[in-house]
Design brief:
Length: about 100
């Protein structure tokens, strides 16, 4: 039995001292059952959280690997051709630069 549950049970027993022993024991049993249900619920939620985090981490690793493979393939193609990929033409600096010319 959990120490916090024992404290609650003792507190409950002190507050309801006029109840019979069997009623007090039943109340303790019910509290223990409720605590067990809550504990199982929290454990399940935590396990689900850990599984979701692991799945997200795996997806990030797969995406990173795909990007690296694509980059390596592009780099190998460029090195085999011996040329750099075409660069975008230089951009004008706007209407002010065109007026000066």
């Amino acid at each position: 039995m959990n120490p916090s549950l024992i404290f609650i049970s003792v507190y409950f027993a002190a507050k309801v001292s006029n109840l019979s022993l069997s009623t007090k024991l039943f109340a303790i049993f019910v509290l223990d059952y409720i605590y067990g249900m809550a504990d199982n619920y929290l454990e399940k939620k935590y396990e689900d959280l850990q599984a979701r985090k692991a799945k997200e981490q795996r997806a990030k690793q797969i995406a990173w690997k795909k990007r690296m493979d694509a980059y390596r393939k592009k780099l190998a193609t460029v090195q085999m051709e011996g040329t750099l990929p075409e660069q975008a033409p230089p951009q004008s600096e706007g209407p002010a630069a065109e007026r000066k010319e």
